[in-house]
Design a protein that fits this description.
The chain is 26% helix and 15% strand. It is α/β, with parallel strands linked by helices and 141 residues long.
Length: 141
Amino acid sequence: MATNPPPAAEPATEPAIEADPDAELDRLDLTHQKLRILLDQKLLLCPVKNPGTVLDVGTGTVDDCEEPWTFTEKFDVVHARYLAAAIEDWPRLVSQAFQFTKPGGYAEFQDYDLEYYSEDGTLNDDCKFTPFPQTRFLSMH
C-alpha cells in the first residue's frame, strides 16, 4: 500500500541579521587605531608632504566608489584601505583612482593579504588552511 509523503514544510524564515552601527563604528575605530600604531602614527605610506586634497575611498560616507566617479577636480592623494573583499571590479577602481590623481600625486591602496603564508615555510600546500582564503575570495566574485 503506497502512502503519500507528508506535505512539504514551509521554509523557515529567520529575521535578517542587522548590523549594530555603534558596534561597527567601534570596530572600525579600533582597526584605525591599530593601524596608526603599526604605521608609526602615519595615515599614509606614500611620501606626500602636506597634501592639499585627499580622497579617502570606501569610507561609506560618499558616493559608491564602484560607480563612475564624477569629481570635477583631481586629488593629491587617492587613498583606499581594507577594501579587498568589498570591490567587485578592481581594474576599474584602480583606473579611476589614477584618473583622478593629480600629476605627481599618489594613489595608495592598503589592505590585508588574502593568502596565508609562513616566513619559515611551515605553512605549505598540505595545510588544510592554505586553500581557504583563495576559495573564499573566489566565492565573493
